[in-house]
Amino acid sequence: MINYKVTRNIVCNYILWWQGLVGEKKYIGKDGVLQYIRHIGCIQYDPVDICGKNADIVLQSRVVEYSKNMLEELLYEQKQLIDCYDKNLSIIPSSNWKYFQYAKKNFKEYYKNMKNTELIINDINEKIKRKKYVCSKDIESEYKTDWGWGDTKISRVVLELMHREGELVVHHKIGNIKYYAYAKDYLSNETFDSQNAFFSREEYLEWRVYMRIVAVGALWNRGSDAWIGIDMNANERDNAIYNLLQNNKIVEIHLSDEKFPLYIPEEAEATFVQIVNGNKNVAARMEFIAPLDSILWDRKLIEMLFDFNYKWEIYTPSLKRQYGPYILPILYNDGFIGRIELIHNKEEKSLFIKNIWMEKDVEIDSRIKENYCDCISRFMKFNKCTQINGLTNLA
């Protein structure tokens, strides 16, 4: 096994290449959406829509001529993708659904042991058998329970737990309302059958750790938000990474002035070597990056590599925010040069540029201005805007 010792800049260039965020876009249209999600394994879903939902912004930054209906069609018509609890609620290839059996099996006993759930479960089952799918509004319940962000109708909680357990899947959404159906009726037999996906918990954790490395492009063996959703402790993570290295599933990378090594997928090694040797020339490009984009999952790693400190401040009290509730990092070529606050007014079909903050020492030249105008134009088209307001020009 080769012992790679490289600079931060090389790792940055590699991650951007792996993420499809550098040079000419290689993912095109709806086929490109499916190709990218199969490549990366998972994109995080969030219902907040200020200038586009997180998953849509992720895809807009990578896929030529992306439109929001493409994701809906792949999820609920073609069933090539599926909503699944991976990095919180995420979108994954349907073929990967069966691999989450160890994450699913703990939830059934949890919701069946909750108070006041027996009648609700019976009501859910009766309505799905009659209507094929159901949402929380269809289930009558006077009870509430503490669920993450406060008191929530217990019917909604039970539906979400039945989804996490794998008995239900999201059949479709209307706005942010999820409609659930039986997984056995919705999925193909091959996808639904998860009996022999893994032989042990250790094998399952190795796969989960490997897929997180794939989703980011490179990770280190440290506590990180990048591991959210994987029920494991530090020792289990150590063992998973050790076994992945022993089985040549991942490659270890060392930085000259960083004590923690990084790990990349084995299939990325050949291109990584090309980047090390300087054989990857790319065209200039600018993108606005979604707040929950997988490239940002490990904020400490991003700060170490790119010297860019980012925090999603949507849940930060307004008086304590440094920037704003929904700020998109601005990626240009091989680094982050700033952040932007965009607001989509659906009634007026307008895109409002509320604020722009450039990083210190960034010199705004004609190429940056040209790429910025192109990026804004694509973002307007993505949100079907006919006009633009606010800070339309870079200083």
Describe this protein's structure.
Pfam families: AlkZ-like (PF06224). It comes from Clostridium oryzae. InterPro entries: AlkZ-like. By secondary structure, this protein is α+β, with helices and mostly antiparallel strands. The chain is built from 15 helices and 18 strands. The chain has helices spanning 8-18, 29-40, 54-60, 68-77, 101-104, 107-112, 118-131, 154-165, 183-186, 189-192, 201-216, 234-246, 269-276, 299-306, 366-382; strands at 4-6, 27-28, 43-44, 63-64, 81-86, 88-93, 144-146, 151-153, 168-174, 177-182, 219-220, 250-255, 262-265, 286-288, 327-332, 335-345, 350-358, 387-390. The model has no long low-confidence stretch (mean pLDDT 92).
Topology:
Blueprint: E1 4-6, H1 8-18, E2 27-28, H2 29-40, E3 43-44, H3 54-60, E4 63-64, H4 68-77, E5 81-86, E6 88-93, H5 101-104, H6 107-112, H7 118-131, E7 144-146, E8 151-153, H8 154-165, E9 168-174, E10 177-182, H9 183-186, H10 189-192, H11 201-216, E11 219-220, H12 234-246, E12 250-255, E13 262-265, H13 269-276, E14 286-288, H14 299-306, E15 327-332, E16 335-345, E17 350-358, H15 366-382, E18 387-390
Parallel strand pairs: 1-12, 2-4, 17-18
Antiparallel strand pairs: 3-6, 5-6, 7-8, 9-10, 11-13, 12-13, 14-15, 15-16, 16-17
Helix pairs in contact: 1-13, 11-12
Pfam family, one: AlkZ-like
InterPro entries: AlkZ-like
Protein name: Winged helix DNA-binding domain-containing protein
